[in-house]
Structures are given as C-alpha cells and as structure tokens.
C-alpha cells in the first residue's frame, strides 16, 4: 500500500507540471524527472523515493556521499544551485551516530534560465544523480543515475 501511495504522489507532482514524467528504477531508489517552463526559465524536478529500509545521505552530512544532482554543461542555459529539502535525523545504533538522511520520498528542484528565451524550441537537458544508499545493515557502492528533461523555451 505504501508503495502505491508513493507512486501516486510522484504521479500527481509530475502531472501538476504538465510534462510527462520519466522514471528510472535502481535497486535502491525510484527516480522520476519532470519539469515546468515559462519561456525564459524552467524548473527541473527530481522526485526520489527510497525503497523500503533504504536511505540516502542528505547534503550537509559529513563523512558520507550525499545525493547530488549535476547538470551537463550547456551554453543554452545557466543553472542556479539545486535545492534539496532538509534531511531527517536518523540514529544508527550500529555506528552510535546520528546522520542526516532521506528515507521518505523527496524532491530536488533545479532552476535554470535560458540564454535565448522564447524560441519555442524543445531542448533535452541532461545530468546525473549520484548517491550512496544504505539500509540498516550495510552501505552499497555509490551509484550514478543518468537523468534528463525535455523542456520548451
């Protein structure tokens, strides 16, 4: 039931943007991309849903590989700094430490501004999402997932 609810939330978030969502499954996460554009600027969204018992590290967590969205360089736009929600505190008894993580669905937002807005051209924006997932027993090898958005300016 929780898995269906997660998918419903992701679908509703993507549908609200008026752009078909693209989903990528990994062993640890479900990653869905969508976007919203108004000609001069666009917001790129990455909805991340950790699988049961999994978590990824939040930016600001020291000593671990935090989830990071990176856009491929493109002279057609400039990118602001990606926005991540605040991480949740998770006490790891086995390590006797509190960590900043995401264990529930969350959204990363990346705002961009087009250099030549209003052309009406469709553009594919590419990037990567890098993370290290862990469960309550082990951490897995870092993973890099390709992401992309189709955006009209």
Structure description:
The chain has 153 residues and is mostly beta strands. It contains one helix and twelve strands. The protein has one helix at 2-15, and strands at residues 22-25, 29-37, 41-50, 55-57, 68-71, 77-79, 88-92, 97-102, 106-114, 122-131, 133-134, 143-152. A five-stranded antiparallel sheet has the order 1-2-3-9-6, covered by helices on one side. A four-stranded antiparallel sheet has the order 7-8-4-11, with no helix packed on it. A hairpin with a 3-residue loop joins strand 2 (29-37) and strand 3.
Helices and strands, with pairings:
Blueprint: H1 2-15, E1 22-25, E2 29-37, E3 41-50, E4 55-57, E5 68-71, E6 77-79, E7 88-92, E8 97-102, E9 106-114, E10 122-131, E11 133-134, E12 143-152
Antiparallel strand pairs: 1-2, 2-3, 3-9, 4-8, 4-11, 5-10, 6-9, 7-8, 10-12
Could you give a quick summary of the protein structure above?
The chain has 153 residues and is mostly beta strands. Helix content is 9%, strand content 49%.
């Amino acid at each position: 039931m929780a898995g269906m609810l997660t998918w419903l939330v992701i679908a509703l978030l993507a549908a609200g943007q008026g752009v078909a969502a693209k989903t990528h499954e990994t062993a640890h996460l479900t990653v869905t991309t969508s976007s919203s554009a108004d000609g001069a600027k666009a917001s790129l969204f990455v909805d991340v849903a950790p699988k049961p018992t999994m978590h990824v590290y939040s930016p600001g967590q020291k000593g671990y590989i935090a989830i990071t969205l990176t856009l491929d360089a493109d002279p057609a736009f400039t990118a602001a700094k990606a926005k991540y929600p605040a991480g949740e505190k998770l006490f790891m008894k086995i390590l006797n430490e509190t960590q900043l993580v995401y264990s529930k669905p969350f959204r990363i937002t990346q705002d961009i501004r087009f250099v030549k807005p209003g052309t009406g051209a469709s553009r594919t924006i590419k990037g990567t999402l890098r993370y290290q997932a862990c469960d309550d027993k082990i951490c897995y090898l870092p993973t890099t997932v390709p992401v992309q958005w189709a955006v009209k300016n």
